[in-house]
Amino acid sequence: ASPFVLRARRSMDKSGMPWHLRYLGQPEIGDKNRHALVRNCVDIATSDNLTDFLVEMGFRMDHEFVAKGHVFRKGIMKIVVYKIFRILMPGNTESIEPLSLSYLVELNVVAPAGQDVVSDDMRNFAEQLKPLVHLEKIDPKRLM
Predict the structure, then answer these.
(1) Model confidence over 92-144: pLDDT tens digits?
(2) Is the Cβ–Cβ distance between 36 and 118 less than 8 Å?
């Protein structure tokens, strides 16, 4: 019984932008030759009082960080290049420090179930970045 994990995020650049609540399901155990991690995903735009609502529902915050970078699109692929910053005082996004000098490159696709061809497209795109970036499939169980 793994914990039920939700991710809440919002843009810091523009005030009044909606919060986004995301549920990520457990990774599918399947073909080891698959080039990408596959899991269910539900993404919902919400109102400004999302954090209060989640606390009332019994959820608790596990961690908080700021990501600064750029979003690119190539077809249905979304490529995000960003640095992660640690928040020094909880809730104060002005007081931050970088976790690393490196950038994180994230490549993801939202596709219907059974679309294994999409993972081949992701691998082909990653091959084009190979001299500069090493993209790898991360096992979330290894991080815990």
Answers:
(1) 888 999 998 888 888 888 877 777 677 778 888 888 888 887 766 666 555 54
(2) yes
Is the CB of residue 2 less than 8 Å from the CB of residue 25? no
Q: Spell out the residues 6+ positions from residue 3 whose beta carbon is closer than 8 angstroms to its own.
A: none
Select from 1, 24, 22, 2 the least CA-distant residue to 138.
Answer: 24
Distance CA 67, CA 4 (A): 23
Chain Cα centroid distance, residue 42: 12
Closest CA to 21 of 41, 57, 45, 1: 45
Q: How far is CA 19 from the centre of its chain?
A: 14
| Interatomic CA distance for residues 2 and 36, integer angstroms | 22
Q: How far apart are CA 133 and CA 79, in angstroms?
A: 12
Q: Which helix (H) or strand (E) covers residue 85, if one does?
A: strand 77-89
CA pair distance 98, 138, nearest whole angstrom: 22
pLDDT band at 32 (very low <50, low <70, confident <90, very high): low
How many residues make up the chain in this entry? 144
